[in-house]
Amino acid sequence: MSIYRNSIWFLKGLREYTKGGYVKAAKNFDPTDIEVDASKRNFMVTGANSGIGRSTALELAKRGGTVHLVCRSAERGKEAQEAIIKETKNDKVHLHLVDMSQPKEILKFTTQFVESGAPLDTLVNNAGTMVNQRETTDDKLEKNFATNTLGTYILSTELIPALEKSKCRPRIVTVSSGGMLVMKLDSNDLQFEQVRNFDGTFAYAQNKRQQVVMVRRWALQYPNISFSSMHPGWADTPAVQNSMPDFHRRMQDKLRTPEQGADTIVWLCLSEKALKCPNGSFFQDRVVVSEHLPLAHTRSSDADELQLISRLEEMTKTFKNQL
Ligand SMILES: NC(=O)c1ccc[n+]([C@@H]2O[C@H](COP(=O)([O-])OP(=O)(O)OC[C@H]3O[C@@H](n4cnc5c(N)ncnc54)[C@H](OP(=O)(O)O)[C@@H]3O)[C@@H](O)[C@H]2O)c1
Predict the structure, then answer these.
(1) Tens digits of per-residue pLDDT, 229-277?
(2) Is 3-321 a domain of CATH 3.30.390.50?
(3) Where in the chain are the domains?
(4) For atom 20 of ligand 1, which residue has the closest CA?
(5) Which residue's alpha carbon is nearest to atom 1 within ligand 1?
(6) Which of 22, 153, 204, 222 is catalytic?
(7) CB distance 237 to ligand 1 below 6 Å
(8) Is there an atom of ligand 1 within 6 Å of 126 CB?
């Protein structure tokens, strides 16, 4: 990550990613875009027990939608499910326990979900992590990569058969991060085996870049589905408190609420305007924004992007064979 890229990015963040940035951007929002009756729509939100994902699930439930919460903790998931049902009086809120860093768990879940014939119109890939020390899962996968990239890839691609049956235009919304703007895709070292000193922020930013590339590639591969990636801004959530304590302490007063962070996700899930934007775009505050900072040299080649997809596909096959 170059000093130039980081400095430009941080100044941009102070202007745009903060609470102040949200309030400024929100002056151009049309509130009617998300005043939608979602009672016939079916949503799935990962990491729905906390922060931005929980706010998203609550907003979708408020509009009458069926909402599948995908969480890793039974206790935290149940608490969120009960609170959302209580607040919205919508009992079509279902809990599924899936650890997004465990490919075989995801595959078992998606197989059951697709075979059940349960309808699905919109998937929100929100679950995300920033693990600062190098940790590996039982499958010997680096934990940030397993959760943010491979988990997102497997869940999305395996749910496509369910989404393709949707009676409206199906959507997949992936919560990336503006942090990816400082990072060029590296599809050779997906699990950070070649880096000398492991750095969680670096791994996270690379994963978030990978998500944006995956989304753009999926949009080409599955034109009948609407794909978007987005940056929620800097929001005050447990992830920021726990993984970036210094940043949280310094920026606390400027951070967005989880609701403000969730706004563009809700808009991407519900609005008709979102469907008119180019498929596979990256969004911030309800508008398409560039995936690159000026002069940052972060564009990747077709070959590198295809290599990422084919590595993820190979890994998915390997885990399917282990079931
Ligand atoms: N907040 C920000 O400023 C910001 C900025 C840019 C991008 N984002 C992105 O926004 C998304 C939501 O994060 P947040 O800020 O709302 O943080 P959060 O409140 O900590 O929520 C993260 C959610 O992801 C879940 N999760 C993490 N690892 C998981 C796993 N292996 N399996 C299943 N679920 C898992 C967490 O579950 P547990 O509760 O069980 O841990 C939690 O529900 C993330 O993708 C994050 O990268 C956030």
Answers:
(1) 999 999 999 999 999 999 999 999 999 999 999 999 999 999 999 999 9
(2) no
(3) 3-321
(4) 239
(5) 235
(6) 204
(7) yes
(8) yes
